[in-house]
Structure formats: structure tokens, C-alpha cells
Amino acid sequence: YQLSGGAFDVTVGPVVNAWGFGPEVVEPPSHDALKGARAKIGSDKLTLSPASGEVIKQHADLYIDLSAIAKGYAVDLLAAAIVQSGHHRFIVEIGGEVSARGLNAKGAPWSVGIEAPKDTSRGVAERIALKEQSAATSGNYRNYKMVDGEVVTHIIDPRTGEPVSHGLGSVTVVHRDCMTADAWATALYVLGEVEGLQVANKH
Predict the structure, then answer these.
(1) Other beta carbons within 10 Å of 62
(2) Which backbone phi and psi does 35 adopt, to 5 degrees?
(3) Could you give the 3-state DSSP secondary structure of residue 178?
(4) SS3 146
(5) For residues 139 and 186, what is the distance between their CA atoms, to the nearest angstrom?
(6) Contact status, residue 41 vs residue 62, Cβ threshold 8 Å
(7) Who has the most CB within 10 Å: 11, 20, 133, 189?
(8) Which of 14-23, 80-89, 189-198 is predicted least confidently?
């Protein structure tokens, strides 16, 4: 949250729900409804205490939704379990988030395809080689809806409360830790091509 300037926020759920991408399908929010939802979010309203393991929220309606890192975290857990069982050459994938260890059967790094960001067909835009690394991709080309002829995407910018509309296809992040890659893929997608690249280069 801090490193991305608020582009990644685990409390964004109320705004996501207001736009109809939560458990209920609803019409786009009115100005007042969106303003009300935005008042309920902000990781700056959370206090974390590593010593006690407590999370204290400063707003009664604040809640945490970890779906933006859940797949990456699950991949990390599976990879750790496989290593614990004594295996060191494998690849794990859940919904596009992937972790690779060691070399493949040909003695080369694992080759992973990044899906082309198209809603009409599935294809590979680019291949990357992973060795002792994870990769996660974030994009809006699958989960969206049309409202009054306009595309409304499921990734919401927590800073504005609005669906991301800059038109960037997708962002893939490679990192040792899949959960971290998952979070940064979302953050950099929200930030967009120019600001996102600046933040990626900075970190």
C-alpha cells in the first residue's frame, strides 16, 4: 500500500462491491454511493502490530479482502510443501500465478507463457524463463462488463474509487515470492504504463 502510493489496497472491497464486482451484481454507483463506499476504505486506517499479531481498524466499516494476493499465496504454500517433501524441480500454477524451482526435464529453466490480453481468444503474447522464481499477471481483459456502451473493468483504483480505464492490457511481475508478485502485478496495473514503470524501476 505504501510503496505503491495506495494503488494496492486490501480494504478496497466496498468500492469493488459498489461497482458490482463483489458477491452481488448491482448497477454502477451514484456519486453519493461511491463517495460513501470510498469513506469505508484505506489501509492507512489499519494499524498492524507484528509483536502482538493484532490488526486494529480505525473505521467500523473497514474490512480486509485478500483476494488480490490469495492465488499467489496459495502457490507459495504449495511450493513450500513440495520442497519440504524433498522435491526441487517443479512448477506450480493456480489461475495464472506460477512458481518454478530447479530446471525442467530438459535441464533448462521452465518456460512460461504470458497470455495475450484479449477477451476473444487465448494465445501466448510472450514467453519467459523462470528458475527459482515466481510470476503473476494482472489485467482487465477477462473480467469486465459493458455499461451504457462503455467498458467497466473489475480492477478498481483505490485512490479514485473508479475502474481502471487507461487501456493497458496486462502487467506481469517476476519475483522470488509469488504473493509479492501477485500484489505488485495489481498495483502496477492500477498505476498504468508510465507511472507503473517508474515505480517498478524505483523498486
Answers:
(1) 18
(2) -60, -40
(3) helix
(4) strand
(5) 8
(6) yes
(7) 189
(8) 14-23
Pairwise CA distance, residues 43 & 191, whole Å: 17
pLDDT in tens, 60-71: 889 999 989 999
Q: Which of 69, 15, 65 is nearest to 184 (CA)?
A: 69
| H/E run at residue 81 | helix 67-84
Q: What is the mean pLDDT of residues 119-129?
A: 79
Of the chain, the percentage scoring pLDDT greater than 90 comes to 67
Rounded (10°) angle between helices 67-84 and 178-202: 120
Q: Which amino acid is at 41?
A: I
CA distances for 202 relative to 4, 158, 164, 182, 191, angstroms? 11, 21, 22, 18, 13
Q: Is the pLDDT of residue 33 over 80?
A: yes
Hey, is 111 helix, strand or coil? strand
Please tell me which residue, 67 or 72, carries the higher pLDDT value: 72
Could you report how far apart the first and last alpha carbons of the chain are, in Å? 14
Region of 49 (left: φ > 0; alpha: ψ -120 to 50; beta: rest) is: beta
Beta-carbon contacts of 58 under 8 Å, excluding residues fewer than 6 positions away, are 45, 46, 47
CA separation, residue 197 to residues 46, 129, 185 (Å): 28, 21, 11
Count of residues making up the chain: 203
Q: Work out the average pLDDT over 29-40.
A: 91
What mean pLDDT comes out for the span 172-184? 97
Rounded Cα–Cα distance for residues 2 and 44 (Å): 9
